[in-house]
Amino acid sequence: MIVAGIGFRAAATAEALAAALAALGPDAPMPEALATAAEKADAAALRVLAARMGLPVVSVPASRLSGVKTPTRSERVKERFGTGSLAEAAALAAAGPGARIIAGRVTSPCGMATAALAEGDGREGDGA
């Protein structure tokens, strides 16, 4: 299962989130789900993007994000979520056991959103 982890500021639009996904590059595989922190999972921008893409949103509890080792690091994210990258941690948590990053964190041109891709077995109950 390939999952796109998404991190974003409260004022981000669906277009900003889509731009972050596009920044992963034209060869990036299509995700099967979008994942983010539980506190962000109901954001209108994310729900709009998910509906446009026909993808489910995986809500990752804070307890699953905290301590996840990520290839990139943001001090602001570390302080708030206990991990180096919300996008990478959410993707890893939602992709399931043994998940690995296949496209590291990128930022939308406007700076309002980040995205990363992880691949794992996605077994229910093990993701988020």
- What's the rounded overall pLDDT mean? 91
Name given to the CATH homologous superfamily: CobE/GbiG C-terminal domain
Which topology does CATH recognise? Nucleotidyltransferase, domain 5
Beta strand %:
15-25%
What is the level 1 CATH name?
Answer: Alpha Beta
Provide the spatial order of strands within the biggest beta sheet. 3-2-1-5-4
Radius of gyration from CA coordinates: 13 Å
Question: Which CATH architecture would you pick?
Answer: 2-Layer Sandwich
GO biological process, one term: cobalamin biosynthetic process
Organism: Aliigemmobacter aestuarii
Signal peptide: 1-18
Domain CobE/GbiG C-terminal: 2-118
What do these coordinates show?
This protein has five helices and five strands; from the N terminus they run βαβαβαααββ. It has 128 residues and is of the alpha/beta class. It starts with a strand and ends in a 9-residue tail after the last strand. Helix 1 packs across helix 2 (44-53). Strands 3-2-1-5-4 form a five-stranded mixed beta sheet. It has a single domain (2-119), classed as Nucleotidyltransferase, domain 5 (2-Layer Sandwich), CATH 3.30.420.
